[in-house]
Write a structure and sequence with these properties.
The chain is of the alpha+beta class and 148 residues long. Helix content is 26%, strand content 52%. A seven-stranded antiparallel beta sheet has the order 1-7-6-5-4-3-2, covered by helices on one side. It starts with a strand and ends with a helix.
């Protein structure tokens, strides 16, 4: 099952500060809903463990995340994949762009993801609703962290 999502968030901080936080594993770990572990690997990536609940399915996803097309402090592409055991798998990517706006930074994102296994059987509406909720939660947390 494929899914796309995009949006924008206005942040009250300069682009360089937002860029620094987007690349800080401690900040990301604190902002990602359900994240239990996030550690930087030597190849512009992270190893992650996150616990998620989608409808009746609860799973602990273990995966890796890679950063590419790095263009400091303007944006990057983030891609990853995670295994959730019997719950299934998720993989996908997002393009993140930063631009100066109204004395702060406008963060735009464009996400494409695929899921399979038990999760994919839950139905598009539940999956999309959960993905939107997780994204909203992440960006609310991230805005707080940036505005510190």
């Amino acid at each position: 099952m494929a899914m796309t999502m995009n949006g924008e968030v206005q942040l009250a901080a300069p682009r360089e500060a937002v860029w620094a936080k987007l690349n800080d594993p401690e900040v990301l770990k604190a902002c990602i809903p359900g994240c239990e572990e996030l550690e930087k690997t030597e190849d512009n990536g992270f190893r992650a463990v996150a616990k998620m609940k989608v409808g009746p399915v609860s799973a602990r996803f273990k995966g890796k995340v890679m950063l590419s097309d790095l263009d400091p402090p303007n944006g990057y592409k983030i891609s990853g994949e995670g295994e959730g055991g019997v719950a299934g798998f998720a993989k996908g990517g997002a393009t993140v762009a930063l631009a100066d706006k109204d004395g702060g930074t406008l963060l735009s994102y464009n996400v494409e993801a695929q899921i399979g296994g038990k999760l994919a059987q839950l139905g598009q509406r539940l999956i999309n609703g959960t993905a939107k909720k997780l994204a909203d939660e992440f960006f609310a947390n991230f805005a707080k962290a940036v505005q510190g």
